Amino acid sequence: MVRDKDQFLNILLVSPSILAVFIFVYVFIGWSVRVSLSKWKGLNADYTWNGINNYLELFKDPRFHVDVRNTLIFTGVFVVGSMVLGFILAVMLDQGLKGEGFFRSLFLFPMAISYIVTGSVWRWLMNPAMVGSRVTGFNVLFQNMGLDFLANTWYGTPVWGIAAIGLAAIWQMSGYTMALYLAGLRAIPAELKEAAQIDGANQLQIYRYIMLPLLSPVTLSALIILGHMSLKVFDLIIAIAGKQLPLDVPAIYMWQITFDGLFYGKGAAIGIILLVSVAILIIPYIRYTLKTEAQQ
Fold first, then answer.
1. Got the DSSP string for 11-32?
2. In sequence order, what DSSP letters do the residues of the chain get, joined into one string?
3. What region, left, alpha or beta, does residue 146 occupy, with left being phi > 0 and alpha being psi -120 to 50 degrees?
4. Which of 24, 51, 166, 252 lies in disulfide reach of 78, CB 3.0 to 4.6 Å?
C-alpha cells in the first residue's frame, strides 16, 4: 500500500512536466504538420487541405536548393573543424600542461557567449572590405604582416562566404568538443598507453590505434550535437551577414516566408523538414545509447 502511494505521488509530481511537454512539444509539432499541409497564407488562418504541395514546391524552389547547399557546406566546415580542433586541444591539455585550468577555461569561454555576440564580433573581424579606410579585422592584420595574399572578402562571396561563417562557429564550439574529448581521454586507463609504449608504439600510433577507437562514443556524441546545431543555424548568419540570398539557410528562409511573406503553410513545411533532418541524426544516436546501456 505504501509503495503504491509513493508511485502515485511520484506520478503526480511529474505529471505537470509531462503535460507541458506533451502540449508545447508534441501537440505543436502535430499542429505544424497540419499547417504545412494547408493553403494558409495571410493573417487569417486557412486550413484548406493542400496535401504535400508545399513540400513539392520547396523541392522545386531554386532558393531552397541554395539553402540545402549552404547547410551542407556550413555543416561540413563547422562539424569537422570543431571536432578536429577540439581533439587537438584536448590532446595538448592531456599532456599535463602547466596552467591547464586556465587554458581549459579559456577554450570553454566562447561557448558561454551567444551566437549574436559572436556574430557581431566576427562581422568586424571578417570585414569584406579590401582597400581604403574601411578595412578592419583580419584583412588589416594580413596587410600589416605583409600577407596581403591572404586578405579576402570573407562572407562577401557565395560558397566561401558560408564556409567563412563556419569559422566563427568553430571558434565558439571547439572548446565544448575539447571538453568532451578531454573527459574521454582522462577516462582511458593509463595502463593501455604504457603497454603500447613498451611494445614500441610512438605517440602518434598510440592516439591513432588506441585512443581514437576508444573515443568513438565521444566522437559520435560530438557529431550528433554539432550536427543538429548546424542544421538549425540562424542567428549567427543573421548577425554576421544579415539576410543575403547567397548565404541563405532553411531557418532564415522559414523566418522570411512565414513572418515577412505570411505564407504559413510553406513556412511550416520548412520547419517540418528541419525537424525530420534533426530527427534523422538524433534518433539513431538515442537508439545506440539505449542499446549500449542495456548491454552494460
1. HHHHHHHHHHHIIIIIIHHHHH
2. -HHHHHHHHHHHHHHHHHHHHIIIIIIHHHHHHHHHTB---SSS----B-TTHHHHHHHH-HHHHHHHHHHHHHHHHHHHHHHHHHHHHHHHHTTT-TTHHHHHHHHHGGGGS-HHHHHHHHHHHT----SSTT--THHHHHHHTT-GGG---GGGSHHHHHHHHHHHHHHHHHHHHHHHHHHHHHHS-HHHHHHHHHTT--HHHHIIIIIHHHTHHHHHHHHHHHHHHHHT--HHHHHHH-S-GGG--HHHHHHIIIIIS--HHHHHHHHHHHHHHHHHHHHHHHHHHHHHHHH-
3. left
4. 166
CA distance linking residue 107 with residue 115, whole number of Å: 16
Q: How far apart are CA 213 and CA 220, in angstroms?
A: 11
Tens digit of each residue's pLDDT (9 = 90 or more) over 239-295: 998 888 889 999 999 999 999 889 999 999 999 999 999 888 888 777 877 777 676
Give pTM, 2 decimals.
Answer: 0.88
Walk me through the domains of the chain, giving residue ranges and CATH numbers.
61-295 (1.10.3720.10)
Nearest partner of 183 among 89, 99, 111, judged by Cα = 89
241 exposed, middle or buried (CB, 10 Å; 0-12, 13-18, 19+)? buried
Nearest to 276 by CA among 36, 96, 12: 36
Distance CA 20, CA 26 (A): 10
pLDDT, one tens digit per residue, over 26-58 is 999 999 999 999 999 988 888 999 999 999 999
Beta carbons of 230 and 169 less than 8 angstroms apart: yes
